[in-house]
Amino acid sequence: MSLSAKPYRLFCFGYGYCCDYLGHDLLGRDGWQVVGTTRDPEKRDTLRARGVEAYVFDAGAPLADPYQVLKDTTHLLISTPPGNDGDPAFLAHAQDILDLEHLQWVGYLSTTGVYGDRGGDWVNEVSARQPSSQRGSRREKAEDQWMSLYKQRGLPLHIFRLAGIYGPGRSALDSIRAGKARRIDKPGHAFSRIHVEDIVQVLEASMARPNPGAIYNVADDEASPSHKVIEHACELLGRPVPPLEPFDEADLSPMARSFYYDNKRVKNERIKNELGVVLKYKTYREGLQGCLEAEEYALSIFKAGGKLF
């Protein structure tokens, strides 16, 4: 299937950072309509002004007219954060989605957090899920909910387990500019990451080559300790490098400390071998350079009085 063919209608439950990049790319092609949900009426109006057909949706607040809103959807992407009961889009609209006549592809954005802590070992898509956090457990439940519709009803589902997401406006560069960056040293610990533009190309490659039931790890080629990323970002910005703080001695919030509990490296061969993806940003070094260039370009457009989106 060519993604330049028409007509196609992408519906995104939870039109956030990743969906925004995907939607912007598809809206630049002939024959694509992009629809999304947000919890914020003000953001809904902003999205509509940018050409995205937007609606308010939240847990406990389903779509007012799901048949009309979802009608003619060909591609569905779920990016809503799950709660203790699972995914809100599943809980509110599973049957509405199953009733769609033209649905060709469904994607669920999960997280590599479902693998839990592996003591620095590698994981791939067939590794057992053993989440060690509430966030990971909620994603595991949501995966199971959507996968049940594939197994029992033939929903054309694809699950994407995303590593740590970064990109323009959401990277180590921003924490350094804000004066919040810290270099925490936990020996042997590593994070896997993925640039938002590479997430988009993985999703588009899957749309072009559907394989219902498939699960994909979406990560770059180099799992690295966070202090190395901060160090490189400081070099790019010409800023002083923060001192290295031993993890056991660092005064971290419970949320910040929880990110260091899982230690694993994520294999990404499937997106390359099956989908033919060639990562644009193979490591954080290329990725941070890309963020810097994108932000400088955006600033030049803004100064010239233009708009990016």
What can you see in these coordinates?
The protein is of the alpha/beta class and 309 residues long. 38% of the residues lie in helices and 17% in strands. The strands form four sheets. Strands 3-2-1-4-5-7-11 form a seven-stranded parallel beta sheet, sandwiched between helices. Helix 8 (226-237) runs parallel beside helix 11. The protein is globular.
Note poorly predicted spans: none
Outline, from the CA principal axes? globular
**Structure classification:** alpha/beta
Kindly state the percentage of residues in helix: 25-40%
Sheet with the most strands?
A: 7 strands, parallel
- Radius of gyration equals 20 Å
Order of helices and strands: EHEHEHEHEEHEEHEEHEHEHEHH
The tally of strands reads 13
Averaged pLDDT: 94
Count of discrete alpha- or pi-helical segments spanning 4 or more residues: 11
**Strand proportion:** 15-25%
Major beta sheet, strand line-up: 3-2-1-4-5-7-11
Write a compact overview of the structure shown:
The protein has helices spanning 17-27, 41-49, 66-70, 88-98, 134-153, 172-177, 196-208, 226-237, 254-258, 269-273, 284-303; strands spanning 8-13, 32-38, 53-56, 75-78, 105-111, 122-123, 157-162, 164-166, 183-185, 193-195, 215-218, 244-246, 265-266. It is α/β, with parallel strands linked by helices and 309 residues long. The model has no long low-confidence stretch (mean pLDDT 94).
Any chance you could write out the topology, listing elements then pairs?
Blueprint: E1 8-13, H1 17-27, E2 32-38, H2 41-49, E3 53-56, H3 66-70, E4 75-78, H4 88-98, E5 105-111, E6 122-123, H5 134-153, E7 157-162, E8 164-166, H6 172-177, E9 183-185, E10 193-195, H7 196-208, E11 215-218, H8 226-237, E12 244-246, H9 254-258, E13 265-266, H10 269-273, H11 284-303
Parallel strand pairs: 1-2, 1-4, 2-3, 4-5, 5-7, 6-13, 7-11, 8-10, 9-12
Helix pairs in contact: 1-7, 8-11
